[in-house]
Amino acid sequence: MPNEQVKVPLFAASEILTAANMNISAGTGVPVFATTVTRDAAFGGAGEKVLAEGQLCYLSSTNVVQYYDGAAWATLAPTSSGLTLVSATTIGTTVSSVTITGAFSATYDAYKIVISGGVASGSSNFNLVFGATTTGYVWGSIYNNYGASVVGGGSTTASNIDLIGNGTTAQLNFNVDVVNPFLAKPTQVNGFFIDPSNSGSTRGYLNNTTSYTDFKITPGSGTLTGGTVRVYGYANS
After folding, report:
1. Which of 12, 34, 84, 183 has a CA between 20 and 30 Å from the CA of residue 234?
2. How confident is the model at residue 80 (pLDDT cuts 50, 70, 90)?
3. How far apart are CA 57 and CA 55, in angstroms?
4. Which tens digits make up the pLDDT trace of 177-190?
5. C-alpha–C-alpha distance, residues 4 and 34, integer Å
6. 19-77 with 83-234: one CATH topology?
7. Residue 120 in this model has a pLDDT that exceeds 90
8. What whole-number distance in Å separates Cα of residue 16 and Cα of residue 35?
9. If one looks up domain 19-77 in CATH, what number appears?
10. What is the pTM for the complete model shown?
């Protein structure tokens, strides 16, 4: 995008104002950023404006206008009473995991993560971790092999949330709600999966009060190819 920028400059007294300086913001009256990550990095650094209440920006990744209320960024338009797309990430070819950065922020308290399209190299369950944390996960799963009895599993001392989705050579399956990932509270997870052999649901939480912005999805074996990981934020009001 030609209007996207990576900083909001702050000019010093007696500084020579060059054409290059002016062109940073000349393309648009509101600074345009690719993602929330580049937005946050554009303020407060050397030669950059200090972020203050009333600041506006446009995010090209989600096509929304946001304003800073003095404590957090909020979406001005388009508004939604339900879900707002935060990010969409294309899965590569034969990758062993998918990490989504900048997914969670103070803008939303709860999120939905969905994978559509894509395939796995073989039948495999997925696991989920937040940030680099590999301890403190508690989870339980109930599932049914079609035509058979209901079974379950779980753990109180796990290194991830397991059985939170799955993949086959025909599809990827991941539909998960996440609550409190950015807040200083235990992060709650609620997901379900459906494939040609079975269906079920998994619930759990990460038992700490760490604030997270990133997450990683990993198949228990094999690789993933194609498909899109979409993160949506549930409106706080």
Report:
1. 34
2. low
3. 7
4. 999 999 999 999 99
5. 6
6. no
7. yes
8. 30
9. 3.40.1620
10. 0.68
Using CA atoms, how far apart are residues 62 and 109, in angstroms rounded to an integer?
A: 18
Class of CATH domain 83-234 = mainly beta
Q: In a 3-state reduction of DSSP, which class is residue 24?
A: helix
Higher-pLDDT residue of 8 and 187 is 187
CB 75 within 8 A of CB 107: yes
Task: Provide the H-helix boundaries in the chain.
Answer: 19-26, 36-41
In a 3-state reduction of DSSP, which class is residue 92? coil
Asked if residue 203 lies in contact with residue 139, where contact means CB atoms within 8 angstroms, the answer is yes
State which H helix or E strand residue 112 sits in: strand 110-116
Q: What are phi and psi of 26, to 5 degrees?
A: -70, -25
The tens digit of pLDDT for each residue in 200-215 reads: 899 999 999 999 999 9
The DSSP H or E segment spanning 59 is strand 56-59
Mean pLDDT within 219-229? 96
